[in-house]
Amino acid sequence: MLTIPINTVSAGSPAQKSSQPSVEIEKVRYCLYARKSSEDDERQALSIESQINEMRRLAEREGIEIAEIRRESHSAKASGKRPEFNKLVSDIRMGLFSGIITWAPDRLSRNAGDLGSLVDLMDQGRLHDIRTYGQRFRNSPNEKFLLMILCSQAKLENDNRRLNVKRGQKTKAEMGIRPCMAPLGYLHQKGFGRNNKAIIDPIRAPIIREVFERVANRGWSGRQLMKWMAGEGNFTTRSGKRANLSIIYRMLSNEFYYGYYEYPSGSGNWYLGNHEPIITKELFEKAREQLKTAPKNWGVNDFEYTKLFTCGVCGANVTGEEKFKTLADGTKKRYVYYRCNNARLNKCKEKYIKEEVIAEQMLEIISKADLSGLPIREKIAEEIRRYKRFAVDVLNQQSVDVKVSDLDIRKHTQHLFLSGKPEERREVLEGLKGKIMVKASKVCLEL
Fold this sequence. Notes:
Layout lengths: L1 E3 L9 H4 L5 E3 L4 E6 L12 H15 L3 E7 L10 H12 L4 E3 L3 H4 L3 H12 L5 E3 L4 E3 L2 H34 L11 E3 L9 E3 L4 H14 L3 H9 L14 H8 L7 E3 L7 E3 L8 H13 L16 E2 L6 E9 L5 E9 L12 E2 H14 L8 H17 L12 H14 L2 H10 L3 E5 L2 E5 L1
């Protein structure tokens, strides 16, 4: 408190009769508050340091003493969301400050809640003065009213801008342009930003199509896809990271890939996009159906023959199990067995069967089975034809018959089952006419 004493004159003078006691005038303690957020509507505002420099020069001209400087990088659209502003209001309420100096009224508030806090502090006599670059607001009806008008105008601008943005986004959605970043597998037209037509990514789109096909046609799990995409698929995100399970499952549930999208998400408003689909809706639905029936236990190992055989005793699926044996030299050897999963009978009597025994018996079955309906028959035939042309053109084997016979198909099918990739073996087994069963520790094909 600054005390200004009134001079006392000598006795008998006229001034002695009008002498008054000492008058106490409260000195305003100012806090400089500077704010700027990274949102589009505030990009044109002065930077925080520029605001501080301008208001320091104003304080020096006006003889204002700045007790403390507060900086904040948050939007003022919503009330109670700015830590430094909330602390400033609390400090004014406690009597640490009684004035605020800031660049403009909208630096303090763009919402009704924070504006109400400032006006309440004025009404309570705790906030005496608000200084901006060109205006001053004190605890008087007119000045408080002007402050409320200016801050309300800032709120009105925010509300109108929000409505205009929503209206523009809805218009884009109706035009077939999803107003947000396109998912992996698409790129945005160069130079037009993320709100324009999405075009096919020539590198990632074929891999994503293959992902849906492997799930829909082969029943691949998320972990199988993740391993394949990190290895043979060589798939990375736009930031160069590997695709994790979360990315893969979001990808498999995104309707954008077959041409449709929901906007906003969860609104139930669906639009037909003007982008080129990567997959068909039928492939998408088939993959989704496979995911519903896929096993949820991610900790299990992937065995080659699971979900392909059924138990000959109870009709349940046959599942794989691995065991390890420590040898005399200290190394461990891995053994894989297949057994009934006991899903239908609590204790099925069907015995275990070794993986190598299954391979031997399956070769015998393939040698006698009907391969006319094999899904990869044409693929196998093309590989045989290519090899025979290579033998004639490169190896100069003139006696090679370039025609593909049933025997050629059968031998190559056995070769794929023995030396092919795991997915090729599964394709061979899935294409056999009949039901593959394990009964009495033997594999049989039931027509």
